[in-house]
Task: inverse folding
């Protein structure tokens, strides 16, 4: 009896040990599999981070195509990642591939509809295409998120020939005490719009026979944009670039939405070899050009000169060709 009991105990012991060993093996296999998955996930995260920062580095040195390739790898790891979609949009915008830029910006907004920076990029894409109607709708959303973005809303009202809306917005902002310093010139310019138009239609306007000093005297009295155009043209023709820069700079405070002033100022800066300042001025002014291909071509020619002065020959050639293409279409 005693022997049988001992045998039973031993059998139970070894069986339990076997079961425990088997359980330990299963547990080890589970842990190993879990570790493999975690390692794979960690590696994927590392790969994503590496590709994403590679894209940022390539974009920083204007290698936009290589940046896009790196971002495409990111999307294979994390499809639909908002930050990646946004970066794709910005790189395509730099390449002037507006179709893809718009597509990726819209995809990014699907996951983050109130992202101010994505909305502002989409607005810029529409602006670059001359699609001011869509740009206006986006800018309205931007202003809902950031009241400090009213300047571009006024500009887009002007570009859409919605002058009354622009005036009304400026009046509302003034009444609410929200009219910023940057908007005051727009208010002055728009309120003087009818006066300017009347002066331009008048038969008593300055002519090229008047001297620069005479035109300055007339402009000081009437602040007419028509007078200003004659004055700046006279300065340009006489190659008085210092005065041209100074006068056009002051005029921009009164007429901040007039592209001709940006062109004149940029031209004067180019002639003084201040190429970086000229480029900034010209690129800003280009946004105000609406349905005037010859004026747009003039901008491109000056932008080309700025890039040439900065020894950026690829961009210089690019904008020179743009100017020539526009002039050929108009001829």
Result:
């Amino acid at each position: 009896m005693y022997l049988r009991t001992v045998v039973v105990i031993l059998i139970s012991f070894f069986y339990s040990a076997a079961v425990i060993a088997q359980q330990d093996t299963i547990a080890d296999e589970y842990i190993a599999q879990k570790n493999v998955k975690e390692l794979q996930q960690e590696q994927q995260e590392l790969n994503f981070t590496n590709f994403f920062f590679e894209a940022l580095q390539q974009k920083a040195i204007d290698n936009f195509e290589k940046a896009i390739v790196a971002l495409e790898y990111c999307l294979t790891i994390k499809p639909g990642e908002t930050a990646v979609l946004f970066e794709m949009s910005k790189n395509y915008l730099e390449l002037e591939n507006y179709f893809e830029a718009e597509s990726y910006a819209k995809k990014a907004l699907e996951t983050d509809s109130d992202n101010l920076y994505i909305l502002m990029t989409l607005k810029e894409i529409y602006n670059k295409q001359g699609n001011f109607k869509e740009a206006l709708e986006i800018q309205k959303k931007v202003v809902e998120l950031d009241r400090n973005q009213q300047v571009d809303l006024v500009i887009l009202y002007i570009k859409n020939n919605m002058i009354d809306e622009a005036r009304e917005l400026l009046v509302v902002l003034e009444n609410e005490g929200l009219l910023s310093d940057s908007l005051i010139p727009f208010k002055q310019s728009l309120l003087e719009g009818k006066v300017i138009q009347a002066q331009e239609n008048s038969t008593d306007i300055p002519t090229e026979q008047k001297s620069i000093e005479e035109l300055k005297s007339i402009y000081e009295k009437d602040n007419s944009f028509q007078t200003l155009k004659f004055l700046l043209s006279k300065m340009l023709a006489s190659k008085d670039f210092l005065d041209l820069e100074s006068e056009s700079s002051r005029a921009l405070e009164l007429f901040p939405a007039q592209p001709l002033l940006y062109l004149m100022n940029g031209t004067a800066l180019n002639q003084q070899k201040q190429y970086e300042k000229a480029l900034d001025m010209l690129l800003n002014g280009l946004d105000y050009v609406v349905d005037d291909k010859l004026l747009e071509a003039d901008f491109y020619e000056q932008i080309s000169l700025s890039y040439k002065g900065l020894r950026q020959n690829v961009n210089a050639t690019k904008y020179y060709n743009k100017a020539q293409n526009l002039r050929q279409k108009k001829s």
Notes: The chain has three domains: 46-145, 147-179, 194-330. Residues 212 and 234 are 6 Å apart (CA to CA).
